[in-house]
Amino acid sequence: MSSDANLNNVTLEQIVSLCKRRGFVYQSAEIYSGLNGVYDFGPLGTQLKQNIKNAWTKALNTGEQDVVFMDGAILGAQAVWQASGHADNFSDPLVDCQNCKKRFRADDINLEKPCPSCGIKKWTDIRQFKLMFETNLGAVSDNANIAYLRPETAQSIFINFKNVMSSTKVKIPFGIAQIGKAFRNEITPKQFLFRMREFEQMEMEFFCQEKDANNFFETWVEKRLNFYKKIGLDMSKIRTRVHEKDELAHYSKNCTDVEYNFPFGWKELEGIAYRGNFDLSQHSKFSGKDLSVFDDETKESYMPHVVECSVGVDRLFLTILFDAYTQDTVEGETRVSLRLHPSIAPVTAAILPLSKNLSENSIKIYENLKQKNFKVQHDESGSIGKRYRRQDEIGTPVCITYDFDSLNDNQVTIRDRDSLKQERISIDQIENYLNNILNK
Ligand code: GAP
């Protein structure tokens, strides 16, 4: 059997359809015609997301530098976002079509041209649209009770910087990392998980002395690229792009985006930013609490500088699906498979009895692997070919078939998703085999 892979023609529609069909992602509130820019994750999507988070966490714990973790609140005090600059600066330019009333991000469209929706050219002036979701705490809705749903997880880290330092043994340089929800009232949520209104971020703020900041910045860019390589992304579709001075965020001194070549063009996957000491200085100023650190060598206090790595879980999820989606021809039939790295795949192995009469034995193998925390499925329904296709489509790296010979020789056939190679291994070698591919 051979596989003639056609790797690059995937469309967004194919990904959306696969996600729904196989239980990765659903439009939120779909039965009520959907909530725009908001998605729910199904059983396979939840596992894929978890695997992405585990891989990210593992990549930060290389042992060279201390990185500790925290989990901050989603509701943010007004003062935090005033100090961070978001209350004043975190907005996108908005323009309306006066004819059809559709809204656009002004930087997304050409205002010299007619409205792409109705074909009439009648634009309003550009206004700034605030991206933070505002709410009120308690029963009284006045200015004093305003809170915001955080638009980035980073500020929870800055406001707890002193708490973490005084309650743990970490010393500068060190990082604080966090995975958590963030919310932005995007004017035009689009491209499925690429730009959402509710999403999850994986952020790490690395605190260091000013003199070391550029070096750490370079180190982290390299480490983050290594991470993408390790999880199996096609590195010819990854590039870095240094921000021009006029596109830097209000807090940033230097920023490099890791970009991916999506079907809709090269776009930001992750931002790596040198934030200077902007955030800690602002929070010191606004809160009146000194967030500087005492240097035992120079006997002087200084405000640490920060290098930030920030990537969206959902955006990386989408990137991984685009990267893995493959159509090829197997035995004259078109097959869809997800070439996911085994450590990312939601199911590592599927156990398939060749006939239902063999399922008592194959279930034993399945139960044993499950008990040892392998992510496995047992599937006995339909022809073996159909079962292979189902597993290929959800990215299961190997199928393990229990057949009539297995009854005598205690061996099973392992079929590789990508090469379609089949090999016989003994049942007591399955765990080793799976551990090897997981740690590849
Ligand atoms: N703390 C820095 C920060 O939040 P950002 O470039 O605005 O920087 C970082 O966001 C990452 O979060 C992006 O590179 C992207 O992966 C993800 N992200 C941002 N907005 C998003 C959205 N609306 N939907 C999905 N992911 C988003």
Describe this structure in words.
By secondary structure, the protein is α+β, with helices and mostly antiparallel strands. The chain folds into 2 domains: 12-77 and 149-321, 2-Layer Sandwich (BirA Bifunctional Protein, domain 2); 347-438, 3-Layer(aba) Sandwich (Rossmann fold), CATH 3.40.50. It has 13 helices and 24 strands. The strands form 7 sheets. It has a 7-stranded mixed β-sheet. A hairpin with a 2-residue loop joins β18 and β19. α2 (43-60) packs across α9 (313-324). The model is unreliable at 1-7 (pLDDT under 50). The structure holds glycyl-adenosine-5'-phosphate. Glycyl-adenosine-5'-phosphate (GAP) binds at residues 152, 154, 184, 186, 195-196, 199, 201, 203, 268-271, 308, 310-312, 314-315.
- What proportion of the residues form beta strands (DSSP E)? 25-35%
CATH class of the largest domain: Alpha Beta
Shape descriptor reads: globular
Please identify the structural class as seen in this structure.
Answer: alpha+beta
Can you name the CATH architecture of the largest domain? 2-Layer Sandwich
Low-confidence regions: 1-7
- Report the end-to-end length measured between terminal Cα atoms: 25 Å
Number of domains as seen in the coordinates: 2
* Hetero groups: glycyl-adenosine-5'-phosphate
The CATH fourth-level homologous superfamily of the largest domain: Bira Bifunctional Protein, Domain 2
> Whole-number radius of gyration?
25 Å
Provide the helix percentage: 25-40%
Number of strands: 24
How many helical elements?
13
- CATH topology of the largest domain, by name, is BirA Bifunctional Protein, domain 2
Q: Mean of the pLDDT scores?
A: 95
